[in-house]
Amino acid sequence: MREQIYRKLMGELKSQLQPSLVSNAKTSKWLHLFCMYLANYTEVKEKKEIDEEIIQEYFSYLTSNYKRLSLGLSDIKRSMQLLEETLNIKIDAPLLDFSLSNSSLWGNLK
């Protein structure tokens, strides 16, 4: 069941991709991670069910598991920007702020 949800979400999101400067391999990796997260950790079954709260939870997941997922800060930032463009959802500024003054981000990256 989860694999069917994953495949459906992956297809829906890939069809919405905007042409960007990011390589296709990176884009595919970020979409794969997001769809796997949705299929395994949420009740989301369709793209239309994805909202700002899901994006915030996903950001927390990435910052908590970035080492295990082999992600750097630039990967997390670009992944969030990709989701913002693909889903046409305005992501809160603190989730896209990777400056040293963003203490909530740096607190999660222990």
Report what the structure shows.
The chain is mostly helical and 110 residues long. 65% of the residues lie in helices and 0% in strands. α1 (2-15) crosses α2 and α2 packs across α4 (73-87). It starts with a helix and ends with a helix. The mean pLDDT is 82.
Number of helices: 6
**Helical amount:** 55-70%
Give me the strand/helix succession.
HHHHHH
- Overall mean pLDDT stands at 82
Integer-rounded radius of gyration: 13 Å
Q: β content, as a range?
A: under 5%
Low-confidence stretches: none
What sort of overall outline do the alpha carbons produce when their principal axes are compared?
Answer: globular
Secondary-structure content class: mainly alpha
Q: Characterize the largest beta sheet: strand count, sense, and whether it forms a barrel.
A: none
The N- and C-terminal alpha carbons lie at a distance of: 34 Å
Number of strands: 0
What's a concise summary of this model?
The chain is an all-alpha fold and 110 residues long. Helices cover 65% and strands 0% of the residues.
List keywords for this structure.
single chain; 110 residues; mainly alpha; globular
Q: Helices, strands, pairings?
A:
Elements: H1 2-15, H2 24-41, H3 52-65, H4 73-87, H5 93-96, H6 103-108
Helix pairs in contact: 1-2, 2-4
